[in-house]
Design a protein that fits this description.
GO terms for molecular function: nucleic acid binding. The protein has one domain (about 15-60). Helices cover about 45% and strands about 0% of the residues. Helix 1 (about 15-35) runs parallel beside helix 2. It has about 60 residues and is mainly alpha-helical.
């Protein structure tokens, strides 16, 4: 295991849109830098932004 990625901090309310931007600009680039094209697991909790429709659609599109 290569460990955890983060933490990522944000001032304000994390909405689905904010989380999607964080995924695209910070979280997934950090994961890709560490793992390249190797398999990894993205674990999310039950926070509402994690299950927002656009977030789910984006993750389904880019992750196998």
């Amino acid at each position: 295991s290569r460990g955890l990625i983060g933490p990522f901090f944000y001032e304000g309310t994390v909405t689905g849109f904010v989380y999607l931007v964080m995924l695209r600009t910070s979280i997934l680039p950090a994961i890709r830098a560490l793992y390249g094209n190797e398999r990894f697991y993205l674990q999310q909790d039950g926070a509402t932004p994690h299950y927002q429709r656009d977030v789910r659609a984006y993750l389904e599109e880019i992750l196998p």
